[in-house]
Structure formats: structure tokens, C-alpha cells
């Protein structure tokens, strides 16, 4: 009889240590092992590493560094938040709202608080495991201490606290506390983040190669057709290829390096937009009518390519500024290609150059807007990383 093969499928709970984590922790375990709370020389490097990690977590959650408290795990964090809120606010309220499907790390401390006089409301969930925000509204009483986006808005409306157990969410979906409306949030990380996900890296490699090929195809077509919009789209393909290459290069680095890379990419996107805008203005004075048929054919091919890339990157649209810049570029590409096709129809119908130049101006505005979004988030992350 052959022995059964064991397959481990509980990576959400615990995983083997990622080699990147081992490499990051080894210097702290072997050399910089001082107590960060001590005042002597051996504590300085450990405290610096702890402060740096605190800044990175704060940037990921959209919080301030001094709002981050490290615990041993999600269970301790939930106990600290729930019991701490109850004991601190019990003179104002003793009512807590939760849902029946919560993790024991949340339900167990609530049952403990029930024994101390807390009144707990357990709300049911629907067939998809979701809670109806209106149930929260109806359950709130003047004594409610603590009842994500929809629930957060209702909690703020009634002036009650919202505690969010965001364990397992980091690196997979957006968990920015201000967007969730959370007053308290505990989160832990098991498994791989999108930054280290080989599928994300594979998508970037494919997108890089496809964009480089499309630049070569489109710049030749743009020059032969005399189209400013196609020229702008061709240069955009080249810029996107460089964007993906930079993202691959810095994906495993510390937040400050990812932030610097994103800042450079955002500035490049912004500068590209200004160049396209200036080119469109110059074209109003000098450009003859472009070749509409070439614009249309190349535009259809480019749209198909960019839709495929955008769909592949859609699941990775949240995260730090470096990851978000990749999605913004892909999203803008699809919009730009649709605009190029509209320009081709406009040129074909009017026989004039202005539809082509108008679309070039729209693409310039998209690049400027997207570049500014990336710059703003990158600057915020850099401020947190250096705090």
C-alpha cells in the first residue's frame, strides 16, 4: 500500500518563511539584536529598523506612523482593541455590534466582555457572508461603543467606533483605514503579497515585452500616417515598457526605494503629458491631415493589446504608489486607444487634422493627471518612510 500524499492548503493561516523575509530579518537576529526600547548603543540599530517597519506599515494602511502598534498577532490585536475600547468607554456605552461569522479572535473577547456586563448584538449575514449596513444602522443604540465602507459611514453618522479585523487582507486588497472609515484596525500578513507574487511579475514581463513591440510597430505607423495621436500613443508604449521594467526592479525593495521609483515614474508621466500637449499645440499650426485608415487599423490592434494588459493587471490595481502607477498607465492606455479610434473616425469624416490633435490633447491630460496621482502618493509614502 502506498502512503498518502499530504498537501498543505492552509497558506492563509501560516506559510513557510519567504526567503526575502529571512534575508531582511537575518541582520536583526544575528547582529542588531538590541532591545529597541533601551537607551544604550546596541538599541539604536534595532530601533531604527523598528521605526522603518512602522513607517512601511503606516504607508500601506494609509495611517500615520505613530498610530501603528505592533502585537504578536491578530488575536492579541483584537483583544487589545476590543477590551481597550470597552474599558476606556464603558462609562459612555456598553453596547457592541458584531456578526455571527466573525473569527474566534474577535468573538472570544466579546464573549468575555459579555460576562463583564457588555451587551453584544450578533447580526446575521447573507448567502455571501456579507452584513447589510442597514442592519448596523437599526442595531445602533445610544449605548453602542463599536459596531467597511458603508458601515464606516453609518458609524461616523452616529458617532460610534468602528473596529476592523483586516487580518489576511494586506497585499491582496486595499486596507487603507481612512477609506474603510475605521477607528481601529488590526491586520496581519501570511503568505505572499502581490509585490512578491510570481503571477504579478509574470504579467509585468508579458506587458513589458508586448509594449516594447507595440512601440516599434506604432511609431513607424504614426510617422507614415502623420498622426500626432498615434505618435503620442507610441511614446506611451515605450514609457509603459520602462514603467514595468522599473516596477520589476524595485518590487522587493524597501518602501523608500519603491517610493523613489514611483516618484520618478510619476514625474516622467507628467513630463510626457506636457510634451504631448506641446506637440498638439504645434500641430495646430503645422500638421496636414493624417491618414485615417492607418490610424484606425493600428488603433484597433493597440486597443486589443492594452485591454488584455489592463485585464491582467486589474487585480493588482491597489497597493503602494509603485504598483498603482502600473495600473494607472494601463487604464490610461485603454482610454487613449479608444480616443485614437475616435480621432481616426473624425479625420475620416472631416478630412481635417483637428480630431487627431484634439485626441492628442486628451491623452496629454490623462498623462498629466495620472502622473500627478502617482507623485502625490509617492511623496506621501516617502514622508512616512523617512519619519
Give a description of the structure:
This protein is mainly alpha-helical and 387 residues long. It has three domains: 49 residues; 113 residues, Type I PLP-dependent aspartate aminotransferase-like (Major domain) (Aspartate Aminotransferase, domain 2, 3-Layer(aba) Sandwich); 192 residues, Alpha-lytic protease prodomain-like (Up-down Bundle), CATH 1.20.1510.10. The protein is built from 13 helices and five strands. Strand 4, helix 7 and strand 5 form a beta-alpha-beta unit. About 1% of the residues have low confidence.
What is the name of the CATH architecture of the largest domain?
Up-down Bundle
- Largest sheet, strands/sense/barrel: 3 strands, parallel
N to C succession of SSEs:
HHHEHEHEHEHEHHHHHH
Q: Report the sheet-strand fraction.
A: under 5%
CATH topology of the largest domain: Alpha-lytic protease prodomain-like
CATH-wise, what's the superfamily of the largest domain? Cation efflux protein transmembrane domain
- Going by helix content, strand content and strand pairing, the class is mainly alpha
Radius of gyration, taken over Cα atoms and rounded to an integer in Å: 26 Å
Number of helices: 13
Keywords:
3-stranded parallel β-sheet, Aspartate Aminotransferase, domain 2, single chain, 387 residues, Alpha-lytic protease prodomain-like, mainly alpha, two-stranded parallel sheet, 13 helices
Concise account of the structure shown:
With 387 residues, the chain is mainly alpha-helical. Helices cover 64% and strands 5% of the residues.
Amino acid at each position: 500500500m502506498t502512503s498518502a500524499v499530504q498537501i498543505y492548503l492552509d497558506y492563509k493561516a501560516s506559510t513557510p518563511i519567504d526567503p526575502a523575509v529571512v534575508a531582511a530579518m537575518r541582520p536583526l537576529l544575528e547582529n542588531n539584536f538590541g532591545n529597541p526600547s533601551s537607551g544604550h548603543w546596541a538599541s539604536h540599530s534595532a530601533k531604527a529598523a523598528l521605526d522603518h517597519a512602522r513607517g512601511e506599515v503606516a504607508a500601506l494602511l494609509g495611517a500615520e506612523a505613530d498610530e501603528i502598534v505592533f502585537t504578536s498577532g491578530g488575536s492579541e490585536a483584537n483583544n487589545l482593541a476590543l477590551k481597550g475600547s470597552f474599558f476606556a468607554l464603558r462609562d459612555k456605552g456598553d453596547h457592541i455590534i458584531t456578526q455571527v461569522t466573525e473569527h474566534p479572535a474577535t468573538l472570544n473577547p466579546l464573549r468575555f466582555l459579555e460576562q463583564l456586563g457588555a451587551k453584544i448584538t450578533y447580526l446575521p449575514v447573507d448567502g455571501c457572508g456579507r452584513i447589510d449596513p442597514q442592519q448596523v444602522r437599526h442595531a445602533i443604540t445610544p449605548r453602542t461603543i463599536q459596531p467597511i465602507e458603508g458601515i464606516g459611514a453609518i458609524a461616523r453618522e452616529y458617532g460610534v467606533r468602528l473596529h476592523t479585523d483586516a487580518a489576511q487582507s494586506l497585499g491582496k486588497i486595499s486596507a487603507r483605514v481612512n477609506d474603510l472609515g475605521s477607528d481601529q484596525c488590526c491586520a496581519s500578513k501570511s503568505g505572499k503579497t502581490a509585490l512578491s507574487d510570481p503571477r504579478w511579475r509574470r504579467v509585468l514581463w508579458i506587458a513589458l515585452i508586448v509594449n516594447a513591440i507595440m512601440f516599434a510597430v506604432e511609431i513607424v505607423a504614426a510617422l507614415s500616417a502623420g498622426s500626432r495621436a498615434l505618435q503620442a500613443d507610441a511614446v506611451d508604449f515605450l514609457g509603459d515598457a520602462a514603467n514595468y521594467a522599473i516596477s520589476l526592479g524595485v518590487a522587493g525593495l524597501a518602501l523608500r526605494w519603491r517610493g523613489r521609483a514611483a516618484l520618478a515614474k510619476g514625474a516622467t508621466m507628467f513630463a510626457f503629458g506636457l510634451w504631448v500637449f506641446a506637440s498638439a499645440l504645434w500641430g495646430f499650426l503645422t500638421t496636414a491631415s493624417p491618414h485615417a485608415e492607418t490610424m484606425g487599423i493600428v488603433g484597433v490592434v493597440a486597443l486589443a493589446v492594452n485591454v488584455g494588459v489592463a485585464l491582467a493587471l486589474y487585480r493588482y490595481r491597489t497597493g503602494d504608489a509603485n504598483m498603482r502607477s502600473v495600473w494607472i498607465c494601463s487604464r490610461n492606455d485603454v482610454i487613449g486607444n479608444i480616443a485614437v479610434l475616435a480621432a481616426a473616425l473624425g479625420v475620416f469624416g472631416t478630412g481635417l487634422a483637428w480630431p487627431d490633435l484634439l485626441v492628442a490633447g486628451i491623452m496629454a491630460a490623462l498623462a498629466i493627471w495620472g502622473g500627478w496621482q502617482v507623485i502625490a502618493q509617492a511623496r506621501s509614502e516617502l514622508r512616512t518612510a523617512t519619519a
